[in-house]
Write a structure and sequence with these properties.
Blueprint lengths: L1 E4 L11 H9 L2 E4 L2 H10 L6 E3 L5 H13 L4 E3 L12 H11 L3 E4 L4 H9 L6 E6 L4 H9 L7 E6 L4 H12 L3 E6 L7 E6 H10 L6 E5 L19 H6 L5
Parallel strand pairs: 1-4, 1-5, 2-3, 2-4, 6-7
Antiparallel strand pairs: 7-10, 8-9, 8-10
Helix pairs in contact: 3-4, 6-7, 7-8
Length: 247
């Protein structure tokens, strides 16, 4: 069986007992970077054979993984940090396993995008995860424009090298919306900076980015004709009138 095992996004204390048990019982551990995964396994005194599965070797390695699964081996897939298949090649493996009719399950755990959105202070009842944007300005702006009219909170991953350019393009596409930039989540120097996009741009200019970032941006506000203020709907209103509760 294939196990999609979530691992800590920074603080090793966040690993679950189920994740540890699964890794200890695995016949093979698959990851993008075997060095990073090796550090995790060594910390918890787990000694298992590893295999690297990346975009540049997936065609060569995928058949080996499927062969192991067909032979009845327990294979654990982990990512460098967080939940496998979220912005990593794990999706290719998952799709192939499903197509083969093989068994798979997930061991839940930390995910940076969820932690970022709940700490952002922006609406979490409906959001869209967009992952990493294109590296260059033109394609990146076109990528951002896809959601320019969306009312949903938007979540992106970004590298420290492109964070400033990303925020500047977001400002040009979305206007000066409320947003948040999260970094080093669960670590000693965890930071969540909140403000308008223009304010976050100035903050990034004054503070050299480092590490990977989660950027959370408010959706487009709904402003009815003749009104200068956005509409804020009360989610309890319909429940109160119908006598139903709200989860």
């Amino acid at each position: 069986m294939l196990y999609l095992v979530s691992t800590p996004i920074g603080n090793l204390g966040d690993i679950t007992q189920r994740a540890l048990d699964t890794l200890k019982n695995a016949d093979l551990v698959i990851s993008e970077d075997t060095r990073k995964t090796g550090f995790l396994l060594k910390h918890f005194e787990i000694h298992k054979p590893q295999l690297s599965f990346r975009e540049d070797n997936e065609e060569r390695v995928l058949p080996k993984i499927l062969e192991a699964l067909r032979a009845g081996q327990n294979v654990a897939l982990v990512t460098d940090a967080g939940t496998p298949s979220v912005s990593d090649p794990g999706f290719i493996l998952v799709r192939s396993v499903i197509a083969e009719g093989l068994e798979l399950t997930a061991i839940p755990g930390p995910t940076a995008l969820i932690m970022a959105v709940i700490l952002s202070g922006l609406p979490v009842n409906s959001f869209t995860f967009r992952g990493f944007s294109p590296h260059k300005g033109g394609p990146r702006r076109r990528f951002l424009e896809i959601d320019s009219q969306s009312p949903h909170t938007l979540i992106f991953y970004e590298s420290p090298f492109r964070l400033l350019a990303f925020l500047e393009d977001a400002l040009s596409v979305y206007g000066d919306r409320p947003a948040a930039v999260a970094n080093d989540l669960t670590k000693l120097f965890e930071t969540v900076q909140r403000g308008r996009l223009s304010e976050l741009i100035e903050w990034v200019k004054a503070n050299a980015p480092r590490g990977e970032y989660c950027v959370v941006i408010a959706g487009k506000e709904e402003i009815p004709a003749g009104s200068a203020k956005p509409v804020h709907r009360n989610k309890y209103e319909n429940a109160a009138s119908s006598g139903r509760g709200v989860d």
